[in-house]
Amino acid sequence: MSSVLGSTAEWLRRATARSTVRERPSRRDLFTTAFWLGCVGFGGGISVLSQIDGEVVKKRGWLTAREFSNTVTVSQMLPGGAAANALAYIGMRFGGWAGALAGYVGFVLPGAAAVGVLSFLYVRFGTVPSADRLLAGFNAAVVGIICAITLKMVRTGVSQLWQMGVAAGALLLSALGSASPAEVVLLAICSGLAVDLGARTALARARGLVGRRAPVALPEDGAPLEALHRPERPPPPPPPPASGTPSLHTPVLIGTLGVLAAAVHATGLDAKLIEMAVVYFRTGLGAYGGGFAIIPHLRQMVHAHNWITDRQFADAVAIGKITPGPVLLLATFIGYLQHGWLGATVATVAIFSAPFALVGLLGTWLDRVRSRRWVRAALRGLTPAVVGLMAAAAITLGGSFDAKVEVGIAAATALTAVRFDVNPVWLLVLGGVARLGLSFAGL
Predict the structure, then answer these.
(1) 285, 294, 313, 369: least surrounded by Cβ within 10 Å?
(2) 397 within 8 A of 143, measured Cβ to Cβ
């Protein structure tokens, strides 16, 4: 009897040990999971992050809830979309650079394909009056969504007078001063460090008071950073990624790239494509707060190079929002209008290269320092700057309205998004349908 009980106890112990061992995903698992999330990742922001949480934490058990919270925090500290950054960081954790690339490309690929198809249809049918009215409704709804996100950010992350000043300064620099997002972000971070670590600390010591810290939130997440992790000692850094080399043979890769470069040079597009790649790379490098925050700067770049019209740019933003994946995919649309599929490919790769590289180079380090005081002070300056950039984006897109009806659609969308928890995609569809219906009524 004792031997039977002993065997049963040993079996239970081994079963329990096996159940506590977490699965380590392969690069294929990372790609397929990210690809699925890219197919269903409509709406952006907190909705996509919650879907990632459901897949990698609750369903597959790759990360604990605390580890995923840390991942979200790190993804907000870098330019680009928080969802794409989070999947790249998860891939880096388990599969090194190849794993990060699998997660990043897998998430972006479905949306890029959808934008490419819509770009093709836009070129063929975008001048049809009914299609033009439909896209105008989408544009109006996008402005309303941006306004709603901005108001929510003001409530959660802009509570101090100096933060309101930073937000106003970012709005003026972006809308009137033609400043790039990187310049605005740098000034905002310096303001956060100076105020939060300098003047505010000195004032607190002089009065013997400790002020309540304002929560920090960026638009791609929607939840305060201080709610994501407690102010306790940070967990140990993640294990170093598994070492491995890509399976591609280097000479073959170099030869293929050489052939492609020669083919592009033969068409005479190489100089234009290089110029376009540099512009989009710079834009991606300053894309703090996601795609909406870079709209004023990107519009200025597009206008300076005379690539597309203001109406086409507004349509690009609407298509980038209505498709799954990051809003930065609006670059795919603009690139297609410039140079077809080749331009779409170059624009897409260029605008996502900088965020991806920064996730790989700085992600692990930011995970270690995310709870330090100077990092939190920098984020308190960054948040109001993103608010100002978002407000500038709404003003920029609102300038393309052709009728008062579109202003009403934008206002109704903003009020609905603030009051109710509605997927933004449905708001876009309703805005387009409403504008199309009103056009039949002569409005």
Answers:
(1) 369
(2) yes
The pTM of the full predicted model, rounded to 2 decimals, is 0.72
Question: Residues in the chain, how many?
Answer: 443
pLDDT in tens, 60-113: 889 988 888 888 878 878 888 888 999 999 999 999 999 999 999 999 999 999
HEC-encoded secondary structure of the chain:
CHHHHHHHHHHHHHHHHHHHCCCCCCHHHHHHHHHHHHHHCCCCCHHHHHHHHHHHHHHCCCCCHHHHHHHHHHHHCCCCCHHHHHHHHHHHHHHHHHHHHHHHHHHHHHHHHHHHHHHHHHHHHCCCHHHHHHHHHHHHHHHHHHHHHHHHHHHHHCCCHHHHHHHHHHHHHHHCCCCCHHHHHHHHHHHHHHHHHHHHHHHHHHHCCCCCCCCCCCCCCCCCHHHHCCCCCCCCCCCCCCCCCCCCCHHHHHHHHHHHHHHHHHHCCHHHHHHHHHHHHHHHHCCCCCCHHHHHHHHHHHHHHCCCCHHHHHHHHHHHHHCCCCHHHHHHHHHHHHHHHHHHHHHHHHHHHHHHHHHHHHHHHHHHHCCCHHHHHHHHHHHHHHHHHHHHHHHHHHCCCCCHHHHHHHHHHHHHHHHCCCCHHHHHHHHHHHHHHHHHCCC
Task: Answer left, alpha or beta for residue 44, where phi above 0 means left and psi between -120 and 50 means alpha.
Answer: left
Report the alpha-carbon angle 331-334-339, nearest 5. 120
Rounded Cα distance, 321 and 203, in Å: 44
233 burial type by CB count under 10 A (0-12 exposed, 13-18 middle, 19+ buried): exposed
- As given in the structure block, the two tokens for residue 217 are 């939130």
- pLDDT tens, residue by residue, 171-224: 998 888 778 787 888 888 888 888 876 765 666 566 655 445 555 555 444 444
Instruction: Centre a 10 Å sphere on the Cβ of residue 300 and count the other Cβ atoms it contains.
Output: 15
Q: Which amino acid is at 331?
A: A
Q: How far apart are CA 192 and CA 258, in angstroms?
A: 47
| Cα–Cα distance list, 439 to 96, 137, 252, 406 (Å) | 53, 10, 56, 11
Q: How far apart are CA 389 and CA 191, in angstroms?
A: 16
Does residue 287 register a pLDDT over 50? yes
Rounded distance between C-alpha atoms, residue 17 and residue 324, angstroms: 39
